[in-house]
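#dry-run=false #mode=assembly
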Amino acid sequence: MLRCTHIVGIMGHEPIAEAIRRGADVIVAGRATDSALIAAVPLLRSCPPGPTWHAAKTAECGALCTTEPRTGGVLATIDESGFTIEPLDPAAACTTRTVAAHMLYENADPFRMREPSGTLDTSEARYTQLDARRVRVEGSRFEPASPTMKLEGAAVAGYQTIAISGVRDPDVLADIGAWRATLVTFLADGIQRVLGYGSGDYHLELRTYGFDAVLGDLEPDTTPPREVGLVLLVTAGDQERATAIAKYANPYLLHWPTADMDHLPSFAFLSSPAETERGPIYEFVLQHSVSLDAPGELVRIEIDP
Amino acid sequence: MTQGSGATIVDVASLVRSKNAGPFWITLDVFCDTDDAYDLVSAPGVVTQQRIADVYGVDPSFVRIFRLPELRVIKVSFPRRHPQGSVRDRDMHAGQQHIPLSRLPLSARMR
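#status=ok
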């Protein structure tokens, strides 16, 4: 937690409802759950929490719960026993599958979703197709819990310098993995010898876009690629060190041969100078729920008259 | 579409997708258009904790698998090997991590 440069709390619907109660016409809110924005008004008007939270979750990404995800919003109508949802675009439709499937989205558990004031449980929800465009949902439950606020924190993972090059030579691409491995080994030795930095002083990766950059060691396909975007990533405790390492690597990135080449190839740098300083890079390091005495305990509300 | 002995999930599913579920978890969804396709993908031995652990390099005891026959969906969730944004993270939003799952064989015996 002490490493965090930023810690952001995620509020529920209560502070938003409170601002509306105090007469706000427009609310400029800090971070809140997506569903809280939609749930605030129905809950303020005493709609039942199960259908309200389920409707809010379903509508959070607009037309993503319809057959035409790139169109506009949706209209959810909440009542005592459930909610009815339909797209605003006449060409789009809500189907039982598109609506039910939205609970899967960015959610590790397809039936339960934690909110600051409790948990939405859709395991007993029933989805009914009313007509070609509208879906009725009943049976959603909300289990109230003592109020919490989730904190998410990011810390500086280091300072990064990158360089981008391109490889098109089929003799190199035939075994790009082996070529990359020999280059990485050579660079580690040279960085130690010339700059005096050991492996614990920095992080260096050569990502081969077009070959295995996205999946890394999980990549199942080792077919030689037609072309590779080679990205050197150097991360260190300060920018100067990261850039010094990247500059040391520069001539080898430009000319590193395969084991059986009798000449020095030249590769296609994106730019000159090749190095780009990215500044600090951030990683998520904190996810923690704080127990609160009252839902708005960590939230300030200011009303402009 | 092939459904012979070499067929994989991507051959019968209508959509396989991946995404972050918060910065420390990945979730994957397999959608099927027909009950036949769903039956093939949800058959015993096709999507298992051990198979997911093998192709994603994670601890099998942390792998959660949900079967939703009404939706013809199988959902798989597990903790990220590297948190979002860390130096080894290759996919900030985990949007392209569905490929190893999509290539799992439909035969329970094949690896």
